Amino acid sequence: DSITVAELAKRMGEKAADLVKSLFNMGMMVTVNQTVDQDTAELLVNEFGHKVQRVSESDVDIDTSEDVDPEDTLKSRPPVVTIMGHVDHGKTSLLDAIRGADVAAGEAGGITQHIGAYQVTPKGGDPITFLDTPGHEAFTEMRARGANVTDIVILVVAADDGLKPQTIEAINHTKAANVPMIVAINKIDKDGANPQKVREELLQHEVIVEAMSGDVQDVEVSAKKKTNIDKLLEAINLQAELLELKANPDRAADATVVEAKLDKGRGPVATVLIQRGTLKVGDTFVAGPAAGKVRALVDDHGRRVKEAGPSFPVEVLGLSALPSAGDPFTVVENEARAREVADYRQRKLDEQRTTAAPMSLENMFAKKGAQTIQFPMIIKADVQGTAEAINAAVNKISTEEIEVRVLHSGVGAITESDVTLAASTGAPIIGFNVRPNAKAREVANREQVEFRYYDVIYHLTDWVKEAMAGELGPEI
Ligand code: GDP
C-alpha cells in the first residue's frame, strides 16, 4: 500500500515540501505527486513527531465476502443473461426481438427505456434479465472488476457465416468464466443458412450441442423474422432451473453497477442489478467511489418503482458522483458510513492516478482479491493476425495464481491513448514490430510507462513467464 507525498503531508498537517526535503535527507528523490510505501510513510510521520495510526483497508472498505446468507433465507431468483457473438451475427437484433416477447410489458404499459439491462417474462415462463450491452468486452471488463453477474451466456452464431474470431473469443471467455452457454443459431431465414455446419464447427471448439449428443442447448432462430424466440426463452428457463439460482430478498441490498451516465436533467444516474436483498427508495448506499441516498428507482419501462429485488435491473437516482460499470453498489446503515467508504475509495483512485512511481515488476502485478494476481498488459502489433496470436499465447500462460490480462490489443503504432491506458493501470505496453509515435513517447516519459519491444513471440512469452516466476517465487 502506498500514499502520495502530497496526501501524506495533508493528513499530517505539514508542508509537502518539508516532507520532500526530509525524504531527500533519507536518500530518496521523490516529488510531491509520487508515492511512498507504508514503511517510508511511517518513518516520515515519526520524524515529524507525529503518532502513527495504521488504518487497515478492511476497517474502512466494505467486505461482503464473509457475509453469507443462511440457506433458509434464500429464494429463487431470475437468471441474468448476456448475449455474445461475432459482430453482425445479430446480437442487437436478438435483444430487440426478445424484448418484444415480454408479456408483462404490454399489461403494465410504459415506454421501453434502454437502461443497460431489461427483464422479460415470456408467455407461460419465468422472468429473465438480459444485459443490454452485448459482446464480451463488457462481460470481461465486469469480470475483471470482480463482478460476476452473468448466469447464462447466449452465444449467437449466424447460420450463413459460421464461427468467426469473436465467436471463438466469446466461447473462450464463457468457458473461462465457467458460465453455462446456450447457442442461438441465428439468421435461419437466410438462403445460405447452414445450421448443421455451425454445430460441426462448434464441435471443433469443444462446444457439443444437444443435436450432436452434447449437453449444450442449441436453438435455431431468426431475430429478424422473430422465429423461435419463444423456444430460446424456454431454453433459458430450463437452464436457469438446472442452476437453482437463489438469493435472500429480505435484507439490505447488494448490487452491481451495470451502467452509469451523467443525465442532463437528473444528474448522475446508475443502472444497478440487484444481487441480493431489496433496494428501496430512501436507502443510503455506496457505489464505487460515489455515495448517495436513493431518491427514485426507475425500471426498464421508465416507470417509477418503490423497490427492486434480486436480479432486477433499476436506474438509481440520487448519486453524488458517477461510478463505473462493475462497481459494487452496497446499502449501508447511515450516511456517515457511506461517506467514509466513498471518500476512502475516491482517495485510492486519486492515488492510482497520480502515482508516478517508476514502473517495476512489483507494481505491474496489481493485486486483486486474495487469490488471483493480475498481470495486465497492452499489446500493439503490425498486423491483426499477429496481435491475435500474441493474445492467445500470453493468455495461455495464465495460472491459478496469476492471470495475464490483455487490457487492449490493436494494430499500428503505439499511440497516446495506449499510453494513457497503461499509465492508469500500471500495465506495460508490448510493441510487436511497432514503436510509439512522438506524442506517445512524450507522455510515456512523463508517466513513466514501460515499453517492451519484440519481434519473436516466444521471446515475449519467455519474459512473461520469467516475470510471473519472479512474482511467485521459484515454485512456478
Ligand atoms: P450485432 O452486430 O451482432 O449486434 O448484429 P445486428 O443485430 O446489428 O445485426 C446485423 C445485421 O444482420 C443487421 O443488418 C440485421 O438486420 C441482420 N440480421 C440480424 N438477425 C437476422 C436474422 O435473423 N435474419 C436476417 N436475414 N438478418 C438478420
From TrEMBL:
Biased segments, Acidic residues type: 58-71
Family indicated by similarity: Belongs to the TRAFAC class translation factor GTPase superfamily. Classic translation factor GTPase family. IF-2 subfamily.
Main location, first listed in the record: cytoplasm
Intracellular or extracellular location(s): Cytoplasm
Function: One of the essential components for the initiation of protein synthesis. Protects formylmethionyl-tRNA from spontaneous hydrolysis and promotes its binding to the 30S ribosomal subunits. Also involved in the hydrolysis of GTP during the formation of the 70S ribosomal complex.
Tr-type G domain boundaries: 76-246
Superkingdom assignment: Bacteria
Key words of the record: Cytoplasm, GTP-binding, Initiation factor, Nucleotide-binding, Protein biosynthesis
Gene (UniProt): infB
Molecular function as annotated in GO: GTP binding; GTPase activity; translation initiation factor activity
Residues that, per the record, bind GTP: 85-92, 132-136, 186-189
GO cellular component, as recorded: cytosol
Chain segments carrying region Disordered: 57-76
Protein name: Translation initiation factor IF-2
